[in-house]
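Exercise 7.
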Amino acid sequence: KNNNNNNDSHSLTGTLLVWTRTKSCDGFKIALFTIEKDSVTYFRKGRAIHTFNIATSKVQIVGRLPDGKETHSSFLISDSQRKILVNAQTKTEMVRWTNMINQTAQTLISKSSSSSSKNVAFESLQRVQKDASNHFCADCGSKDPTWCSLNLGILICQRCSSAHMLLGSRFSKVCSLVVEGLSYYSEFAIKQLGNGFVNSILEANLSANYQKITSSSTDEGSRSEE
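Solution. The predicted structure, written as tokens, is:
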């Protein structure tokens, strides 16, 4: 079933699958999900099962299910009380939901100037941006990227982070610098690598007339998908 946006840019309603454990078998069961204002709620058989406060919850893309099968459209959402594994019909749909949650979290954090987590994340972002090449998205060159690929050691913009999510966490483990911040080891790795150094290796064999994607070309690509 297709998901439908409400008029609110931070609202989303649709059906997704939730991993459940029963006496007979483990597997996915259909559930209704809503994103409204500052929360994500999921329903089963018309009853609200749990509501996640977006500001205090965490979203993580996963590449493998509990039964060992590979997945390209699943993510975990968790808070202090509950963790659930959610599966979308497609990668694009999964990115749509996770981006909506992360965008809402960024909005909530930006409105809370007293938030200590915001200050910590901002300080971490400032430290990795001491490398001048990290002031621009490693992929399209957009200014002031606030996302990163932890395993590649690069900073990317929000739109390019969606493309990295579609690749799957096996290839690029994406993290929001504003919402999640960086651990000590992740920050250290990015400061040691950085966009300029990584691109000098990954793009070493590109022809001189090769044209990289730009922020405008990623905009066009996203419109064509719609």
